[in-house]
Every structure is written in C-alpha cells, then in structure tokens.
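Good morning,

Attaching, inline, the backbone tokens for the sequence recovery test we're adding to the shared suite. The designed sequence is right after.
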C-alpha cells in the first residue's frame, strides 16, 4: 500500500471589525483607550503540508465555511509593555476570552461583542496583545493554567461522516503601531487528515468494477478520539503539542461510512473516495495526531465485479488494515488502494492425456486407381 501526503486548498480574505466608542472599558490593567478598533486580517492558509510531487485538491474547512456557520473563537492576553516570551500569562485570558467572531452577511462585516480596542500604556506607548484563535467556534472547550498558553480540548465525532476540520492561529505581541494595527491571523490545519483512493491493479478486459461503499473501523480502545492542544508562541500552529486527556478517550469500533457511490473503476485512473463522496460533500477522517500501530484502523471496501458478456454480478467485501504510522498535525495522508480481482478464469490442466494411435491395419481403406 502506498502512502502519500497532499496539500489542501487555501483561501484568503480580510475581516474588518466594527468601530469603537471612547467609553468602552478595555480590561483591569488601568490603561487608556483611544478611538482605535482592533481589526483582523484572517487567512485560511498554510494548508496541510506535503512532500508529494502531485497532490489532489480537497480543503475541508474554507473561509466560506467560517463565514456561513463555523465562526472563529478568539482568546487574547494584554501583556502591557512585555513581550509574550517574557510574560507569565494568567490561567484565564485578561483581554478577550472565548470571544466569538461571526460574519454578518447583510452588513458584509465581522461582528463580535463586547468590542475591543488597542490599549495604551501609562508611558504613552501602545500596549502589546497576543491573540489565539480557532475555528469552528463551537468545536473545542478552552482552558488554561498559569504560565501557559491557552489549551483546546477537542473531541472527534465517532462517525467519520460527521468529523470536522480544525484550524488554529496565533498573533503574538500585536499592537496598534505594529502592522498598521491589524491583527493578521493565518490559520493552520492542526488535525491529521486521512483519505483513500482506489483503482484496479491491472486491466481486466472481460470485467468492470463498481465501488459501492467504504466503511471505517477502529480497534477497540486503541485510537484516540479526544486530545488537548496547547498553542505555542509561533505562527506555525501545526507545530504545537497534542496530548491525550486523562483518562484517555478512544473511538469505539464502528467508525461509520466514508464513501457511498456507484463509481466505475479503471485500471488507468484512481477514484478519489473523499471528494464529494458522501451526500455530495467531501468526507475525510479527521484524527487527533497520534501514534498508530498496524491494523488500529481498517477500511472495509464493498464493490461489485461485473462480467461484460453475461452481465453477471459478484459482490465482494475486502477489509484492509492500515499500517503503523505516526500521524503529524497539519499533514494529509492518502492511502492508494490497488484492487486485485478474484476471478474464476478459464484455466487448463497441466496434465494432458495422449492416447496411442490404433493399429493402422485395423481400419484400412483401399482405393482403386485406374
């Protein structure tokens, strides 16, 4: 079985937040407020990293998804004149805590409450703020501890067709006099994505094959379903740490249906079993990054082989165990399945009986020639 990485597509847009009022209170650090709103520039970029020369497309969470329903949750820490690296953060954010930013399609702008503005310090300098965001907004439970960046507890759906992508971003030591006062989020995919393609291993001139379904199964109490993600102080959120919860939460055996269809196989081309394969939408496994052993996950492929001349159909089910692998955050994995058909082909016995000629005089024919 061949394993490939491949890139997810990227999208970009700018989020502009609403204006401010002087009377708004910023936080408890006795800073002053000027009429300077915090504006966000948000990009769904740095998609799943790949080393493959060719990569099928397939971003799962797009900026349009975030606008329509996913939204963004933001936590922010006001560090005063200190940089994040020299700051000891409190257990709970002191500037923005679980602030949900939603797209207003009527006003064509991003809105949130309560409004926030750039703080100014007592010495007249602009205060520094570090921001931590993720989407979908309702996909995680946030927590923190003193001296640490915020943490996200994420639980994947048991059924693969319900699993969601998760992206995160940080902007460290932002201020009104840095980057023109705009907070530029660049989101990373922080889960591990698994997909499948299938093709015939060789040509079968007298048969064609239809793929009906791909189901996912987990070895009981072996594949982590829940994990704790801790942000780091870099712009590469995919490099941050994942840890299991205590006690660990695992998948149950039945992982649900990844693909339902009626695609016809060719020995020349792969069928992508993820692109618009389930209810006309993309469907991938979205897993907590972790170490997997052989056969911790296996795929069950259901297909029909059909004889061209007789139209005889044979239903088949194959179970394919996935090999051991260390899943990395922000990487997309493709398992390319080469399907060998088990056919009752016509064969000849290698033991051939050769009978002796009968006596040449026993059946002689006399021809009279004049």
């Amino acid at each position: 079985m061949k394993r490939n990485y491949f890139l997810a597509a990227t999208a970009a847009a700018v989020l502009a937040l609403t204006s401010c009022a002087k009377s708004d209170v910023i936080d408890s650090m006795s800073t002053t407020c000027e009429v300077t709103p915090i504006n966000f520039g948000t990009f769904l970029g740095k998609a799943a990293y790949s080393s493959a020369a060719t990569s099928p497309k397939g971003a799962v969470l797009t900026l349009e998804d975030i606008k329509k329903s996913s939204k963004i949750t933001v936590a922010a820490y006001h560090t005063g004149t200190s940089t994040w690296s020299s700051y000891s953060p409190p257990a709970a954010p002191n500037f923005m805590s679980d602030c949900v930013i939603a797209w207003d399609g009527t006003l064509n702008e991003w809105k949130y409450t309560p409004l926030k503005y750039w703080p100014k310090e007592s010495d007249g300098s602009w205060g520094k703020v570090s921001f931590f965001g993720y989407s979908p907004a309702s996909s995680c439970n946030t927590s923190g501890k003193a001296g640490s960046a915020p943490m996200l507890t994420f639980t994947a759906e048991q059924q693969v067709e319900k699993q969601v992508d998760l992206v995160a971003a940080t902007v460290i030591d932002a201020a009104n006099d840095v980057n023109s006062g705009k907070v530029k989020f660049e989101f990373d995919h922080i889960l591990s994505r698994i997909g499948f393609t299938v093709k015939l291993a060789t040509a079968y001139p007298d048969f064609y094959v239809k793929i009906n379904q791909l189901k996912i199964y987990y070895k009981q109490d072996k594949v982590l379903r829940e994990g704790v993600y801790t942000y780091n102080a870099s712009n590469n959120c995919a490099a941050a740490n994942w840890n299991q919860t205590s006690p660990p939460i695992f998948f149950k055996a039945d992982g649900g249906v990844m693909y339902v269809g009626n695609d016809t196989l060719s020995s020349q081309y792969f069928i992508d079993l993820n692109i618009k394969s389930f209810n006309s939408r993309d469907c991938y496994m979205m897993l907590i990054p972790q170490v997997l052993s052989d056969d911790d996950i296996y795929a069950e492929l259901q297909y029909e082989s059909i004889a061209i001349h007789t139209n005889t159909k044979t239903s088949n089910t194959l179970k394919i165990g996935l090999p051991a692998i260390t899943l990395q955050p922000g990487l997309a994995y493709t398992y390319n399945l080469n399907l060998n058909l088990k056919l009752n082909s016509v064969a000849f016995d290698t033991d051939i009986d050769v009978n002796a000629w009968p006596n040449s005089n026993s059946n002689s024919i006399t021809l009279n020639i004049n």
